[in-house]
Amino acid sequence: MKVGIYANRCDTDTQHISFSLHQPFTALGNALEGDYGGAMEHLWIDLELIEYWSKPDGTPRHPFRFQKRVSGRSHFGLPPIDDKYNVGHYSVRPDFSLLTSLNSEEVVPYVLSLIYASTAGLADKKKRIGEFDLPRFQRHYREECSRLGYALNVVLPGDA
């Protein structure tokens, strides 16, 4: 499975945060690539960095969705690409007041911890994503964050 973690959409208040997350997100996504079982071939996680786009109740804009065989067809006149991947995708909404108050050394661990905590929601999607080994993925996520020098400030049930 390939993992992509993104903070592509931002505003002027959060642009510097997006820039500071690009390298850690790329490194972590590459490190998490592997076989976790199940039908999911790609997992895309988006960090919401535009506060006014958020839902009024404070929940993330995009709940988890699983798309089988996502089309690679283009709407821009490019040649079609065959359908290839089963993709899981969701977004994570930070506490914007907290996020914008953190210094640059605190932003990355906060966001990585937030994303780590969000993976617990995948447990409820077992019927849709099959035999995905969530505990193994979470353990690997935690190990790779540590290897990259980021301590997570959240503990999930089953963490050692």
TL;DR?
This protein is 35% helix and 16% strand.
| Widest sheet: strand ordering | 1-2-4-3
As a whole number of angstroms, the C-alpha radius of gyration is: 16 Å
Main beta sheet, described? 4 strands, mixed
Q: Please work out how many helical segments DSSP would assign.
A: 5
Helix percentage: 25-40%
Oligomer: single chain
Question: What does this molecule look like?
Answer:
This protein is of the alpha/beta class and 160 residues long. It has five helices and four strands, in the order E-H-E-E-E-H-H-H-H. Strands 1-2-4-3 form a four-stranded mixed β-sheet. The two termini are 24 Å apart.
List the helices and strands and how they pair.
Blueprint: E1 2-6, H1 15-31, E2 42-47, E3 65-70, E4 85-92, H2 96-101, H3 104-118, H4 126-129, H5 134-147
Features:
four-stranded mixed β-sheet; 160 residues; alpha/beta; single chain
